[in-house]
Amino acid sequence: MRLVCTLLSTLAAAALLASASAAQADVTTPKGAQPESLTVAPNGDVILGSASQPRLYRAKPGGAATVWVDVSKEFPQATFLGVLADPGSNTLWACQIDNGTPTEGRKASLRGFDLASGKPKSRWSLPGATSLCNDMVVAADGSLYVTDTFTGRLHHVKKGGTEGTTVLDNFRLMYGIDGIAFLNGKLYVNTVFAGNLYRIDFDANGKATPVEIFMDKLVTKPDGMREHGGRLYVAENGSGKVHYLTITGDTAKVTVFKEGLQQPTGVQPAGNTIWVPERSADKGTALPVPK
Question: Which residues in the chain show pLDDT less than 50?
Fold first, then answer.
């Protein structure tokens, strides 16, 4: 698998995209790793989850990815979905699917690993007989919000990653709550099966309510979502596109950022680029951020 990183400056993006001589730095990873999500460490290292293996991979741009974390002894059927570098706590957060079978009874946990060494730091098992930890976002106070796709639940995990509660269990989110991000202090989630976007409003008592944001274009199977530059970037794995959303009140303008991808399942801003893992193609691409 090859992760192709096109190193383009924001100011020269339009010209360089049309040029065949644009510089590239390749990252190679083992075949079949199926990166469902990736993140970038403060030193520029790329960290990838694996939707098919009980391992996390790490690589320097231009180098070969190697196994960084291996949980196969304790969880031989495990796989990893969302991953997120959290420099503030020196933690790599990862959604670990503890058993890999798609049957009822699948369990998942939020794992915390030392961002430098990969040493395990914390584990919080999602509640219920069935769970699917998909993605997470870090709040300003260091706590986390975690999406639980198959149950339609949103969980709040305290700083440290060992204690959590369910803050939202709503029928609207049963259609695949997946991507999650903060934008201007507001929390947003999408639903991968229904193709919807919601803002999560909290009242004075902490009660959470999903408010639908009406997108001006159809987005098929929205997946990973991250904030950058006052916009929400979202991977549309149903049609091979990445969009950015400009939100005003309860509406969102959808702008195509990149198309022609093979099942993009995540997005990750890093400097002047947006990393996009393509799960079915076993690769990822770093794209220039538009002005």
Answer: 1-25
Residues 62 and 26 sit within 8 Å (Cβ to Cβ): yes
Half-sphere exposure of 142 (CA within 13 A, CB side): 12
What pLDDT does residue 148 have? 97
* Amino acid in position 146: V
Reading the block at residue 282, the tokens are 């076993």
- SS in 3 state form for the chain? CEEEEECCCCCCHHHHHCCCCCCEEEEECCCCCCCCCEEECCCCCEEECCCCCCEEEEECCCCECEEEEECCCCCCCCEEEEEEEEHHHCEEEEEEECCCCCCCCCCEEEEEEECCCCCEEEEEECCCCCCCEEEEEECCCCCEEEEECCCCEEEEECCCCCCEEEEEECHHHHHCEEEEEEECCEEEEEECCCCEEEEEEECCCCCEEEEEEEECCCCCCEEEEEEECCEEEEEECCCCEEEEEEEECCEEEEEEEECCCCCECCCEEECCEEEEEECCCCEEEEEECCC
Query: How far is CA 166 from each of CA 152, 252, 265, rounded to the nearest angstrom?
Result: 11, 27, 25
Given the structure tokens 């196969």, which residue do they identify? 72
pTM: 0.90
**Confidence (pLDDT) at 18:** 28
How confident is the model at residue 122, as a pLDDT?
Answer: 98
Cα gap 214→197, rounded to integer Å: 7
Residues 185, 137 contacting (CB under 8 angstroms):
no
Contact 36, 276 (CB under 8 A): no
Which pLDDT does position 50 carry in this prediction?
93
